[in-house]
Amino acid sequence: MKRISHLVYLVIVVAIFAGCDSDSTVMYKNITGKAGEMVVVISKDSWNGKPGEVLRETLAQPHAGLPQEEPLFDLINVPHEAFKDIFRSTRNVIQTTISANVDESGIKFTDDVWAYPQATIQISAKNADEFEKIFRENKDRILSYFVQAEKERITMNYNDTYERAVFNTLNSEFDVTMKVPPGFRIMEKKKDFLWVQFDSPEITQGIVVYSYPYVSDSAFTVDYQLPIRDSLLKKYVPGPTDGSYMATEKRLDQINNVIKHNGNYASEMRGLWRVENDFMGGPYVALSELDASNQRVINAFGFVYAPSKDKRNLLRQVEAMIYSLKLNNQADNDKLNQQDIEIQVEG
What we know:
The protein has 347 residues and is α+β, with helices and mostly antiparallel strands.
């Protein structure tokens, strides 16, 4: 018996040491820094020159759909010699190498180099002009990579700990699921309509889920969606004073983009909301998704109210919640999506 135990011990020890050479057993630090922060490793001359300019105009451009200007990312420029452990675990990192001694110019995307879950990009170029060319050619990919990383980090936080009452209500009565953090309360529930909200003394985050029949391609246009949304908000989401109610702010254009979500045809709309007959307002993001199997459009409208506070990160949290939306009959939709049905959206 002792001999068997000794052999088992040896097998475990060998497995542990063998695993030390395997990437799958690498232990990472947790990421550090605030949501939306990004370290840019770059020389002072390059930061003050054209490379820094193109980095800032893309990564620090104003976030779409906010009432006050906030950058997409908070950039922290760090010289190469100062890029030590304290910065290496930052959630988002761009490393630059701009030198005539660069052997191979290009860009590389790598996850989890020094921490988890981390997004890093390495850009190598022989000079400032080449750096600008590489960056501009990959600008959309760079933005998508970091924005998606921020969204996935938030989603990870909700995967295990979420408000079961909201999840179960959507699952049983709407045939969809969505994960929102604990603390969200059901404010109003009607047929094909649900309003949930989290309130603190300083902020409010809310989500309205509703559906309407898919009868034509126009179901994803701004002109079609806004009257439906505003009629439901007026009916079911009252403001703080008598006669006040939530509505879309129409004095500014809505930002509407056609996308795919979980393989389904969808659109994302951003803009501002306000309370009619009162002075409340803030940003929103909305996801409209085709449930082709049931010939309906599922809508998730997420909004933030945070007077005198930055709203970018609060809106990103709501965005991650609504993008956790999943159709219970997704398998049926997958079969229909394979037919590659085209939808033309105008307006």
